[in-house]
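1st attempt posting a full record on here, be nice pls
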Amino acid sequence: MGAAITRREVLKSSAGILGLGMLGAYEAFAMEKRSRFKIGACDWSIQKMSEVKAIQVGKKIGLDGVQISLGSLANDMHLRQAHIQQQYKDACLEYGMTIGGIAIGEMNNIPYKSDPRAELWVSDSIDVAKKMDVKVVLLAFFHNGDLKNDLKGTQETIRRLKKVAKKAEDNGIILGIESWLSAKEHMEIINAVNSPNVQVYYDVANSNKMGYNIYDEIRWLGKKHICEFHAKENGYLLGQGRIDFAEVKKAIDEIKYEGWIHIEGAVPENADMFDSYVLNNKYLRSVLKS
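the predicted structure (as tokens):
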């Protein structure tokens, strides 16, 4: 369970799926009905961060869609540009895919709590999400943007979220907070902002790493306060690491959650990303269909 696996071992364990070939792997899932859950992956996790090609890679893996990045500092959050939006829309039409969400990962380096650029990005992301027919924007609060034990930063984050919440409400867009905070700490922010359109983006691996009881937290937060999930492991395939996804499924069943679950991480050391994601996709679907 704790040992790293090689590409050869991944290939061996995926016999029958990978035999379909890279171009045809997704066809194994083409006839499945996926009305309650949609399975995607983060573009940065499939090695195509802020690249339109993420849509094609996601299709080959067998996903329903991809959570795409608003952009980076280097490309000036290029999804704000109409012609970039059109490129993604065209790719989705070509491959029969969906944009499963938008994320602003650059906020880990350019903190929302202190940098006016990040504040502008969040406001602009609402406009982009509306144009892209996306319902959730993930706001990342890690590294430089970490809010854990940062009262001043948390207060400023609340102030800024209050300013933008009405715009999110008017456009039907959910701003999802992903951070190292506990469910209780997240709710302190959400209650202070007092908007139904500011919710928790729940990452099971991050919360598990912090020592939180993720199954209890999911139930406590409920469908009202969780906008989406990351199905994640650090250094393991899904189902072979620390997270009991059968218990996650029980918790999300109890809260009657439905919608996107995006795979993040879950590539063992020295294993191939594509092969790992085909396996992760197969595993997650097998858990969620029961």
